[in-house]
Every structure is written in structure tokens, then in C-alpha cells.
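User: C-alpha cells in, sequence out, please.
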């Protein structure tokens, strides 16, 4: 009888502990400046989580050093489940291969919670480029080596890796022109400063419709329903040209399991809300994922291996 009472009290104590999270305000540390797609999504999710959790959920922007500033802040935060990192594949799939050293270990110092969305990028061109498809662009590049430029937002950035992989796979010579921010590359192509770049659907769609840009190809295994006329690199024979980016939630390593589970469950519920899912995500070119912590961890391992090859081919290094 005493053993039974002890077990019941233990179960009740465990349930009470699980219900104490969150015990205070929760911070979502975003690795990018205010105003971009990832920041907007963080604020929309935070607004919905606040009433669900009965505690303020605040967004804190910590941009800098290719997401390393935010990653370092969260890696060193108390592992109590009240500090969430919202970042992209740059932190976990690219930076470990790009930097000789990082102030944290991406495998040891974080707990993956969920991948929110996946975003395939387009290869877009200035309308003056005398090629309307990938085959024509490759033929043009081969006929005029070194005469075609493509913009990125820095060495080792997603557009840089995609561009270098395309060069490697197609055997062409494109000139890389790095800009100092994600918001500068597309305007550079529109202005005719460079001929090409890789860009998300949300930041390209209005320019495609107005004719200021034209789409050449898109990453991923299937065409986007928003641009069904644009073929994928894979169907054109270049599956190695990966253009994807993803947004994900992480906690410091050692955070309580109940926090990991609650964050995943409640965020997945938000992603599955029909109106939010369609208007805020799908209509903006995002593929909704909502993976479990285990699924997310397995995906990162595979994604990191793929990006290691791309970084090696690109020759990109960062200090």
C-alpha cells in the first residue's frame, strides 16, 4: 500500500512539474534583423503562443556573424526551456563547414525542436539575359566564359553554394558577386548590376509578374504550385544544385523534455491551422513541415553532409 501511495505521489509530482512550464516569459531569439520573412513568422507564432502558454512570448532579434551571434546567445542560455533559437540552415548545415571554429558545438549544445518550413529558391535573371531557360543559360555561359555574374549575400551563403554547384555540375564559368545582405541581391539583378541570383518566391513574385525578373529554374523535388511553369533543377538533370533554406526552432541542450514536447506540439498546431497555413505560409512559397524533434535531428545530419560537399566545391571559407 505504501509503495502504491509513493508511486501515485511521484506521478502527481511529475505531472505538476510538467505543468509548471512555462513559468515565465519565453524568448524567441531570431538570428536575423527585423522585417524579414523569418522575423515575421516568429512574431506571428509568438502572438499565437502567448495565450496558449499563459506567459508573454517575446521576439528578440540578434542578427550578426551569419547567425552565430544568436546561436551563441542561446547555446549559453539557461537550459530551462524559456529561450528558443529560431534560425535557418546556415547555423547548423553550413557554418560548421564554413568556419574553422565556432563558439558552440551545433550537435552538443542544442536540442532540435521542429523544422517549421522549407523554402526552395529560384534562379532568377535580368530580362536582358538572352536565355529563357537553363539549357540556354548554360549554352550562353559556355560561349562567353566569365561574362555572366551572379549575386549572393556573402561567401558561403545559400546563393553562393547554389551558384558554385551549378558551375561545377554544368562545367561553366560564372562570376560570383557577394553583397552585404540578403536584401541587396535581388535589387542588384533588377538594376542590371548583375545578371543572376537565387531568391525565394516571396521576394521574387512581384518582380516576376512585372517582368523585371525572369525565372530560370527552382530547387526541390517538385515544381512549386505558385510557379508551375518553372522547372526544377532536378528534372533538368541537375539534382545536385540544392537551393533550399529552412526555418527551425532549437533549445539549449539539456532543456526539459516537457518544454521540447510542448513547444513542438503547440507550434505544430499553429502550422496546421488552415487559414494560417494557407495565407501565411503556402501562399508565400513555404512548404510546411512541422517535423518532430527526432525527425528534425535526422534531417539536419543529412542536410549537413550535403552542404559539406557544396562548401568544399565552392572553396568558401569564413573567419
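Assistant: Sequence out:
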Amino acid at each position: 500500500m505504501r509503495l502504491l501511495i509513493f508511486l501515485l505521489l511521484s506521478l502527481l509530482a511529475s505531472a505538476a512539474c510538467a505543468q509548471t512550464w512555462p513559468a515565465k516569459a519565453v524568448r524567441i531569439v531570431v538570428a536575423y534583423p527585423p522585417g524579414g520573412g523569418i522575423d515575421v513568422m516568429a512574431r506571428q507564432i509568438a502572438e499565437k503562443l502567448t495565450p496558449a502558454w499563459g506567459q508573454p512570448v517575446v521576439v528578440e532579434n540578434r542578427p550578426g556573424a551569419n547567425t552565430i551571434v544568436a546561436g551563441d546567445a542561446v547555446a549559453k542560455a539557461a537550459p530551462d526551456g524559456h529561450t528558443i533559437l529560431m534560425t535557418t540552415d546556415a547555423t547548423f548545415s553550413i557554418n560548421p563547414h564554413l568556419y574553422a571554429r565556432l563558439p558552440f558545438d551545433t550537435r552538443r549544445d542544442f536540442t532540435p525542436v521542429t523544422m517549421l518550413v522549407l523554402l526552395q529558391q529560384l534562379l532568377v535573371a535580368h530580362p536582358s539575359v538572352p536565355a529563357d531557360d537553363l539549357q540556354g543559360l548554360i549554352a550562353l555561359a559556355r560561349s562567353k566564359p566569365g561574362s555572366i555574374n551572379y549575386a549572393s549575400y556573402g561567401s558561403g551563403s545559400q546563393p553562393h553554394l547554389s551558384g558554385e554547384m551549378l558551375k561545377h555540375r554544368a562545367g561553366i564559368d560564372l562570376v560570383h558577386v557577394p553583397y552585404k545582405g540578403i536584401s541587396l541581391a535581388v535589387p542588384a539583378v533588377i538594376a542590371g548590376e548583375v545578371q543572376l541570383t537565387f531568391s525565394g518566391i516571396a521576394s521574387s513574385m512581384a518582380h516576376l509578374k512585372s517582368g523585371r525578373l525572369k525565372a530560370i529554374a527552382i530547387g526541390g523535388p517538385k515544381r512549386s504550385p505558385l510557379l508551375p511553369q518553372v522547372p526544377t533543377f532536378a528534372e533538368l538533370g541537375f539534382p545536385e544544385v540544392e537551393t533550399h533554406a529552412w526555418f527551425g526552432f532549437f533549445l539549449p541542450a539539456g532543456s526539459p523534455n516537457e518544454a521540447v514536447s510542448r513547444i513542438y506540439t503547440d507550434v505544430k498546431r499553429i502550422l496546421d491551422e488552415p487559414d494560417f497555413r494557407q495565407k501565411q505560409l503556402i501562399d508565400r512559397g513555404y512548404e510546411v513541415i512541422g517535423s518532430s524533434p527526432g525527425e528534425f535531428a535526422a534531417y539536419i545530419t543529412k542536410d549537413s553532409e550535403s552542404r559539406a560537399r557544396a562548401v568544399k566545391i565552392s572553396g568558401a571559407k569564413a573567419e
